[in-house]
Amino acid sequence: EAGVTQFPSHSVIEKGQTVTLRCDPISGHDNLYWYRRVMGKEIKFLLHFVKESKQDESGMPNNRFLAERTGGTYSTLKVQPAELEDSGVYFCASSQVFGSGRVTQYFGPGTRLTVL
Amino acid sequence: AQKITQTQPGMFVQEKEAVTLDCTYDTSDPSYGLFWYKQPSSGEMIFLIYQGSYDQQNATEGRYSLNFQKARKSANLVISASQLGDSAMYFCAMRELVRTGANSKLTFGKGITLSVRP
């Protein structure tokens, strides 16, 4: 079974440009999460989808970030326009929907974004 | 607000020895779950072990065990018989189950770097 995949693995852009990150969750996983790790800091939650609906977007830093999950499959995270502080590693995770608290989130390898 | 604290500097351990990675947490939620993830240099985050706040026994998964001390709000990861492949960054994370639900976000600590010496 394929794991969570993310594309691209690295992206280097200039301030003011637009970047779109893609995440393909594990097949059958209705939960999809976006997280971000800025250098030396904690991994921070950004957004949670259940199928195509945004369940929790409390971690989105500002309106320059737009996440979509059309059809409830893959998701995209667009940053427009990118700023220097957006640099970091963006992780996507997915999980099945269960009632138990031990629902495990499976992470992708991350996209390393550098804004110059 | 929920918080995870990992304050150890880079940790070193000799191959085949055991090592403990510290994690303390803070939450007012009566029910929560604690997770440990491993991030090798290749970048992927690998789930290692889970402990529920109401679990009667400490979790174990192969060479990984969790020293869960609820009263002290600590959930330390113990790796026995360290291997060179254990060299990685390790993250402790928590999910609050009453306040946010079983499928909700994880809150992470800053991580600890473990280096295994041959």
First-to-last CA distance of chain A = 37 Å
Return residue spans of chain B where pLDDT drops below 50 for at least 5 consecutive residues: none
Sheet-strand content of chain A, in percent, reads over 45%
Number of helices of chain B: 0
SSE-based structural type of chain B:
mainly beta
Number of strands of chain B: 12
Report the span from N to C terminus of chain B. 41 Å
Question: How would a textbook summarize the main sheet of chain A?
Answer: 7 strands, mixed
What oligomeric state do these chains adopt?
Answer: heterodimer
Summarize this entry quickly.
Chain A is an all-beta fold. Chain A has strands spanning 5-7, 10-13, 19-24, 31-37, 43-50, 53-56, 65-68, 75-79, 88-95, 106-107, 111-115.
How would you summarize the topology of this molecule?
The complex is a heterodimer of chains A (116) and B (118).
Chain A: E1 5-7, E2 10-13, E3 19-24, E4 31-37, E5 43-50, E6 53-56, E7 65-68, E8 75-79, E9 88-95, E10 106-107, E11 111-115
Parallel strand pairs in A: 2-11
Antiparallel strand pairs in A: 1-3, 3-8, 4-5, 4-9, 5-6, 7-8, 9-10, 9-11
Chain B: E1 3-5, E2 11-14, E3 19-21, E4 24-26, E5 32-39, E6 46-52, E7 60-61, E8 64-69, E9 74-79, E10 88-96, E11 107-108, E12 112-117
Parallel strand pairs in B: 2-12
Antiparallel strand pairs in B: 1-4, 3-9, 5-6, 5-10, 7-8, 8-9, 10-11, 10-12
